[in-house]
Amino acid sequence: MFRPVGKSSSWALITIAGTLLFPIVSGLCANRLGKSAGHTPKLDAIVQITHDGISKTNLLSDGSNIYVSEWPAAHHIVARVSVKTSDRSVISSSFKNIQALDISPDQTRLLVTPLHAGAATGENEFWTLPINSGRAERLGELNGRDASWSEDGKQLVFCKGSNLYLASGDGSSAKKIFEADGPVFAPHISNDGKRIRFTLESAAENKTSLWEINIDGSKPHDVLERWQDVSNACCGSWTADGHYYIFQVTQSNPTAFTSLWALADSGRNATPFQLTEGPISFAYASPSRERNKLWAIGVLPAGEAVKYSPARKKFTPLLAGVSATDLDYSADGKWVTYVSIPDGELYRSRADGSDQMRLTSAPERAALPRWSRDAKQIAYVSMQPGRPWRISLMAISGGASRDVISDKQSQIDPNWSRDGHRIMFGYVRTSEHLSIKIADLITHKVQEIPGSEGLFSPRWSPNGRYIAALTPDFTKVMLFDFRTGKWSNWLNEPAGAVNYPVWSADSRSLYFDDLVTDEESIRSVRVDQHRAQRVFKLQGIERYPGPFGLWSGRMPDGSWMFVRDHSTQEVYQLSLELP
After folding, report:
1. What are the backbone dihedrals phi and psi of residue 18, each rounded to the nearest 5 degrees, phi first?
2. Residue by residue, what is the 3-state secondary structure of 221-285?
3. End-to-end CA gap in the chain
4. How far apart are CA 566 and CA 308, in angstroms?
5. pLDDT band for position 28 (50/70/90)?
6. How many whole angstroms separate alpha carbon 102 and alpha carbon 561?
7. Average pLDDT over residues 503-520
8. Mean pLDDT, rounded, for 313-326
């Protein structure tokens, strides 16, 4: 799901709590799903409209101009961009922060919401703003989260928390027509004025879904209830003729990506068809009044690996000109391995960036590489279509990789033993049978750590004595001591507080990236204690949201590494074939 937030993360990967966007490579043509051309919707061409690099969210169009909500600095504005010339101007407004939600049927006014203190809860006022000149006017006494007009402008649908409301087009006579089990947003009335589609957010299931309800509040249902191939669909709108519904789907694994889909408006058994696929992510689709065109915001993911100095509060680039994440340096600091953004390919080079070599290629994607202590091999997570993820080994000289062991579940988090003869790993958090295992690379025997059932994200201490691991709800850090052969409850934290844990070089402390407690910071806990302490507060960086969240790591000298978000967001025109 895509939703504007206060921070300007180029593309806030839409998780339930965040927001983000993605752009494109000119001339990209997407693969199509389904039958032969002429029988299913398909994408014919993509043309880039803007080239300004400004962060963007909502997108509207009247056919001649694009109206896009932007935040070029510390505040939000609405810009008008000519479709023909790409000329850009700012819509005049007395509001410091503003976001456009819809355009009136006569194309003279924008439905806007001023973003102020209420934005944290989504309770903002609704106003109309003349496109060319004139003063903004309050739309009744309404406030809420998202809103849009009907095709004739006589009705207004808006969201407020988990409630869906319907009002007259001028904001009067508002009434609640539906209460959902979670927050709702992005509502639109069908072209015939008989139905409303909106997005329902489920924090418990970490997903969003598309729902439909009759205009009188009857017969609410999941639009894609019979389609099991998507868990994060949202934010759709109908084409000008009402024959298709265009929406977006966000996936996080094996990489963060958002695509556009088309659903024929021909009943509950219709099958969605994918219109776009990587490397660009598209969102905020706005169908044109021409049937076979739509506009969308696209993001081309890019990240810059940086080293942070807490004392100087300064970030220093590590690999000039390289878009990368998941860095790991060899023990002697002479070599580095990393995963490219957005391709997900595994590379290695010398620490200064020279002697670069690509080690994997599509369709395989790599993640979380780790050097062996002798710097002769790299263990990494290999993600290939149609099979569970595997821990694979790659020689520093390249060549074919080899899996550590075969498995029916997806493996993750490789850890090397001190002698380099064993690999410890865990399983993806959603696996049916969680445990932590150690594979002997010489004997090929596999040992399960006693008592590790239900734990994941293992970290082996450098001295080999301890294992730190997490419970699936992210609330407990458990500690295993090889000397006693027992686990203990080491640390209790709020869910989401422990990210990318890493041991100190002396094996006395565990560091982790805390995104939820107080302010974003690096914290640590000692082996002999049960309370974490802040090491430093992280500030001054917009971080890249990868498939496993906001990555962080440590260099052999103890310096901290992060990935600065260098993604770009632009407006594109997409030409479609819609049978």
Report:
1. -120, -160
2. EECCCCCCCCCEEEEEEECCCCCEEEEEEEECCCCCEEEEEEEECCCCCCCCEECCCCCCEEEEE
3. 27
4. 17
5. very low
6. 41
7. 92
8. 95
